[in-house]
Design a protein that fits this description.
This protein is mainly alpha-helical and 121 residues long. It has two domains: 5-63, Orthogonal Bundle (Arc Repressor Mutant, subunit A), CATH 1.10.10.60; 74-121, no CATH class. The chain has five helices and two strands, in the order E-E-H-H-H-H-H. A two-stranded antiparallel ribbon has the order 1-2. A hairpin with a 2-residue loop joins strand 1 and strand 2. Helix 1 packs across helix 2 and helix 2 (39-46) packs across helix 3 (50-63). The relative contact order is 0.09.
């Protein structure tokens, strides 16, 4: 398996965002490990780097699971109810601008929309 990297330019520094190892690969690593195969041999068989194999094993031994941890990633800014209210507002008046929606929602949510991009399906 190949790691797909996306490059982002942040404040003049290049950052690499790596794709997670698939659950199937993690499952293979665990099965081989339980058969008594060394980390380096597993790395050669599964075609991932040895530190990746080690990371999978450490995570598995700590949690007992090969699944991704819940609650990862950026948290949503608004709840589903708030999102629905914004969509209803735009459905009722499609000419509403983002600043106008922001001003309408701020008293209700206590948060201000910044650079809102709405896609109406």
């Amino acid at each position: 398996m190949y790691i797909i990297a996306q490059f982002f330019l942040t404040k003049g520094v290049m950052k690499v965002k790596k794709k997670d190892t698939s659950v199937e690969i993690r499952d293979l690593v665990i099965r081989h490990y339980k058969e008594g195969i060394t980390q380096q041999e597993i790395s050669d068989i599964v075609k991932v780097k040895r530190p990746t194999v080690q990371k999978i094993l450490v995570s598995y031994n700590a949690t007992g699971s090969i699944e991704n941890k819940k609650g990862r990633g950026r948290k949503p800014i608004f709840s589903n109810m708030e999102n629905q209210a914004i969509i209803r507002m735009v459905d009722n008046n499609p000419k509403f601008s983002a600043p106008k929606i922001s001003n309408e929602m701020e008293p209700k949510t206590g948060r201000k929309l910044v650079d809102l991009l709405l896609e109406i399906h």
